[in-house]
Amino acid sequence: MTYRKMRYIGFSIITLASLILPWITINDKHFFLLSFDKKQLQLFFTTFNMSELWPMLFLLIILFLGIFFVTTLGGRVWCGWACPQTIFRIIYRDLLQTKIFGLYKSIDNRQKPISQGKYIQKIFAFLIFALFAVAAAADLLWYFVPPEDFFVYIKDPSQHNLLFVIWFIFTTLIIAAAVFLKEKFCTYVCPYVRIQSTMLDNDTVQTIYDPIRGGEIYDAHKQKIEGKRDGECTRCDACVKVCPTHIDIRAGMQLECINCLECSDACEKIMARLGLPSLVNWTSPNATQSRGKVKFIRFRTIAYPIVIAITLVVLLSMTTTKKSMILNINRNTELFHISKDRQSVENTYKFKFENIDSKEHIFYFEVLNPDITIKTPAEPFKLKAGEVKIKVVILATDINSSLKVQNGKPLPVIIRAFAVDNKEKIFIEKEAAFIYPNKESIK
Fold first, then answer.
1. DSSP annotation string for 226-239
2. What share of the chain has pLDDT > 70, as a percent?
């Protein structure tokens, strides 16, 4: 199987996965959804409130470490085999413009200019791709606005102007990148090309022309050597004609190369007629020079997966043990006050309860210090899924309590808040400070 066919299979799998994934839910929770509308993150079918966005930190760590690992191992393999920009260009140039409307003669020669005239075909190719860009932009939005909400929102455009503006911007960017910037996007716009150039070494797998077998085509100054052929290379330039970024791989590794290996397929067709293997291969510089195998096992290729695995295990363990409620405690500005009947000392707080579970619950709390009682609120209260409620809480103790002030420090109080209907699983403990005055202050 050629590299081109393997890439097309990979593109199809990635496209289908990106389209299907937003629709998959378990208990109304998505695999990944960063909803600014609902102010929550859903990850691995677990919901996180905006106040607990720590999983995003782990995701970013895994993302960047993954990029470093893939780049160290296979160079710009992401660019040629998984990047959306590459997929968009394949759909627009190779499928629509070349295969369907014949605006280019063949995808085996990407250096020839587009056919003159044929304006109707050009317009139709653009319009079809524009519709595809609209769908692709919508699919991207589904990771921020779930499909079940998205299709409800678009029925009422006047109430969701921002959604349509963002949708239009995403669509425009896709069209601009694939239709107008073309491969210049990969070379001049994408920051990854600059990052990956610092991570390559002589054991990184890249698209490499074999000068030992094929002969030197360029000199040390990157000038093409004219004259008598030296080596197995026939100088047919098939590898140059097929290159989507318009480079000659025989000049050595270049920044524009996206490791698509189209040149390897093209060379293999020509060399097969001579009974020889391709002169362009997916290998490393060291393996090419030593005529040996690629050294995949190296310090960096081992270290990155280990760190990624540890980060992923920590993330999974924390998501499975996440709390279903949040409690924030703030004191009133008044340190303490004496009740009207002068029988108790009272402290006033503001308790902020947040139900981050997917179900409605009835909440209340208790004080784990036996000398302190709850004066208000007297009854449990109900919170819907995702609802936040602030309660004014008054804690009191007898004015002749046995509590003693230690060097003027506040007395620690343990508050245990819980869901009345699921007390064993949904609870949280917080420490608060209770101010109990000395005898002189009471007088």
1. PSS--SS-----HH
2. 95
